[in-house]
Specification:
heterodimer; A: mainly alpha; elongated; disordered N terminus; B: Rossmann fold; Alpha-Beta Plaits; 2 domains; six-stranded mixed beta sheet; four-stranded antiparallel beta sheet; disordered C terminus
Chain lengths: 275, 320
């Protein structure tokens, strides 16, 4: 991990600001991944929700749902819900980030970090990058389950695959910064888990499981413009070739907006004097 | 001012309308142990938090320099010069002791090999080799505190803040900690420690400041502080009330405790004064059952300065 870029010399070269930021962030990332590896139960529990929902909706409700969206059978419905479940996986995984940030802030070691000559933001960056990596791992696991029960994305080109991956990472980054903000605002882990709950509930009122235009009229605008629906529609379009339309730009705008908001909120909270 | 490791003028901090620190001046010479002594809630921890850049002082505070750097202008330079061990253990409980040490080495940007060497050396020095591969959350209080200090030392800081380093430790761990602190200073490090134990300040510190209600009530060496407070006396205890009464009348200027049958004679504890007391008792043919010489200790100072009750006026002054 810490392979020196230049041959080791007895006197340490004075590092530039950027290399310091990268180095400290990498150290913090390693710490967070160590936590996740040593205590995987949190991550695994959070993965359970999307997998159970996927199996439930395909095998229990699948027949009816498929007819509802005008499909020919269960396999049509598998194709329909997988993009939504992948986004839901992201929403569920970032709850872990909120919980681990809140837990961390109650640890004395954070006070130690604050009194060290390190890049201050590296504590948060370590959490954020760690959470995005966990999201990617989660998406891979849930995606594998989807493929196992018959999901196929054979029409997509390599560029579309890449774009789909990029969208998932951007969405994970955006939700993670929001979750980190929630974690910082929470007095303890339980409160953080509660306040981050909407991130896994929002997909249920998006177009993840049923098309937004089948919802009650007054509710449609909410379902259509909340962050999950454009992201899911875009992912669906990239993987299955359905129409994306304005959802692509909307999804990117949500990602950029939420990232900026979450970043500002988190760093403002973290730079405040601790109690 | 170059030989001062810490220099603070008019340190102030309020939370809401409660002034925790109300104009504290501190001067700590390089290579010495300085103890900030005070009861709970006196503001000791707040002082450490400010001097270690964890929280910012009120704008009304004067200049604060730590390790020669201005705290407000260049906190990062201050951080590079200091090491902090807080009151609540600052170790990462989820990872092992060794991983904690390597984490510190990485954050101090030590090359990998040097980091491993420093970590191994400190684990050895603080008797943590056996526990190195276990999660820090499983450590005992004393072990956690040792790991905490070992982590603080990774960066080879010139100034070390120890906030109540022995609170909650058993007597053996406490003595180990004292030994560690003494060793630090022989290496030229400056130690700023807070404590509520007078014995600890007396044992370790070159200079002591007594903090009470956000102000320095007195400052000086342990000896200077003890001299501030009259309190030396000889205590005589009797079992026979008749002997107690005749001793009281023979000695004249004494305070008596009729219930305990004990007399308290002001004395500096010198051989001459003791002899005169014993001579006078001999003359009336009385023998005390117990004789104790009490020289003023920091306890007397502490209670006199921080209690507020019946303290002599001049003792509010600092002796420098």
């Amino acid at each position: 991990m810490s392979v020196p870029l230049a041959p080791a010399r007895p006197t340490r070269p004075s590092p530039t600001r950027l290399s310091l930021v990268v180095r400290d962030s990498r150290t913090m990332l390693r710490r967070n991944l160590l936590h996740a590896r040593r205590y995987p139960s949190l991550t695994l529990n959070l993965l359970l929700t999307p997998v159970v929902l996927l199996l439930l909706f395909v095998y229990v409700f699948g027949g009816v749902m498929s007819a509802g969206i005008g499909g020919a059978g269960r396999s049509d419905y598998v194709a329909y819900i997988v993009p939504g479940v992948l986004m839901l996986t992201v929403g569920g995984t970032v709850i872990g980030a909120a919980v681990s940030v809140a837990t961390d802030m109650n640890e004395g070691v954070i006070a130690r970090f604050r009194t060290m000559a390190i890049h201050r933001g590296s504590v948060l960056v370590g959490h954020v990058v760690g959470s995005v990596l966990q999201c990617v791992a989660g998406v891979v696991v849930v995606g594998a389950v989807a493929v196992a029960i018959g999901f196929r994305s054979t029409d997509a080109t390599a560029v579309e695959w890449l774009a789909a991956f990029g969208l998932l990472v951007m969405f994970a980054l955006a939700l993670t910064w929001i979750a980190v903000g929630m974690g910082l605002a929470s007095p303890n882990a339980e409160a953080a888990a509660n306040s981050a709950q909407p991130l896994v509930l929002l997909p249920l009122i998006s177009s993840a499981f049923i098309p937004a235009d089948t919802m009650p009229g007054w509710f449609q605008p909410i379902a259509e413009y909340q962050p999950f629906t454009p992201a899911i529609e875009t992912l669906r379009g990239l993987l299955l070739g359905t129409g994306i339309g304005h959802n692509g730009w909307l999804a990117v705008a949500w990602c950029v907006g939420l990232t900026a908001l979450g970043y500002r909120w988190s760093t403002a909270q973290f730079s405040r004097d601790p109690e | 001012m170059t030989d001062l490791a810490i220099a603070a003028n008019g340190l102030r901090k309020s939370y809401g309308d409660k002034a925790v620190l109300d104009g504290v001046d501190l001067a700590v010479a390089e290579g010495t142990i300085f103890a900030l002594l005070g009861p709970n809630g006196a503001g000791k921890t707040t002082a450490v938090k400010i001097l270690s850049t964890l929280v910012s002082p009120d704008p009304a505070s004067g200049e604060i320099r730590v390790g020669g750097h201005d705290l407000a202008a260049d906190p990062q330079a201050v951080r590079a010069a200091i090491g902090v061990t807080g009151q609540f253990s600052a170790v990462d409980g989820l990872i092992t002791g060794e991983e904690n040490m390597l984490l510190m080495a990485d954050l101090h940007h030590l090359p990998r090999k040097e980091g491993r060497r420093v970590a191994a050396g400190l684990l050895e020095r603080f008797d943590l080799v056996e526990a190195a591969k276990k999660p820090a959350s499983t450590y005992s209080g004393g072990m956690k505190r040792r790991l905490d200090i070992a982590m603080t030392l990774v960066g080879d800081p010139r100034i070390i803040f120890l906030d109540e380093p022995t609170t909650g430790l058993d007597p053996r761990s406490r003595h180990t900690m004292w030994q560690i602190i003494r060793e630090l200073v022989t290496g030229g490090v400056t130690v700023f420690l807070t404590t509520q134990y007078l014995e600890e300040a007396d044992q370790l510190a070159h200079r002591i400041a007594v903090l009470d209600g956000g102000r320095i009530a007195a400052e000086g060496t342990a000896e200077e502080l003890k001299r501030l407070i009259p309190g030396g006396h000889v205590r005589l205890r009797f079992s026979d009330p008749a002997a107690y009464r005749s001793a009281a009348s023979a000695l004249g200027e004494v305070t008596g405790d009729d219930e305990a049958l004990a007399l308290r004679i002001p004395s500096d504890g010198s051989q001459r004064e003791l002899r005169s007391v014993l001579d006078r008792l001999d003359r009336v043919g009385v023998e005390a059952d117990e004789l104790t010489v009490h020289t003023p200790d920091l306890d007397d100072v502490f209670f006199a300065l921080t209690g507020g009750a019946g303290l002599p006026h001049q003792s509010k002054e600092s002796v420098r």
